[in-house]
Amino acid sequence: MLANLYLLGFWLLQEAVGWDLRTMWSLMGWPARTVVIILFIMSAWSVGVMIDRGITYAAARKQSRYFVQAVAGALREGKLDEAIRIAERNKKSHIAKVVAAGLADFQSSAGLPEEEIIEASKRGLERSVAITHAELKRGLGGLATIGATAPFVGLFGTVVGIINAFREITAQKTTGLTAVAGGIAEALVATALGLFVAVPAVWAYNYFTGKIESFDVEMDNSSKELINYFILRRKK
Prior knowledge:
It is a single chain. The protein is mostly helical. Helix content is 87%, strand content 0%. It has one domain. The chain has helices spanning 2-17, 21-27, 30-76, 80-88, 94-108, 114-136, 140-172, 181-235. Helix 3 (30-76) runs antiparallel to helix 7. 33% of the residues are buried.
């Protein structure tokens, strides 16, 4: 129903004033133009975050698959230095970051009592998981903010457009569509752009949040498996 109203509004404008994007822009006042510019900036920023996070998560997934297979063999043979080198070659892998930190803490704690070594390794792994989680989540807060606020920015432009439409009616003493075309243009464009910016941002935020949750599970599982490996290694 709402989409039909927008289509009807655009059709009426086209019939009345020969509507196109350039005409629409010329009919807008500077408050509405400012709203449009802000929405375009928000859209460009959210698209940039989507591309950056998509590339980052794809690389993390790809390198983690290779890392898990490569490091398993090194750990079975007790080659901790080799495992660390493998992790350093896969810096984009979230699992590699966690495992490298745990192995480094385990080696640096050599000579301490067994319980202290395990506790130091646990703390190092927890710290590494938290840091990696924050790195993976970078930019998603902005996506959430854009998804939540873009409709209201568009709504502000809609209100400005409606105010201008009534102002033109008062000034021209007429209710014809031509008299209020500028105000209607501002209202329709601002509302449509607000939704156009918000919907993809919300979708992307939810999608990437699901990705991060799966990464968190993988990092937690890797941390627990590494701790078990340290315990078994110390008992030998």
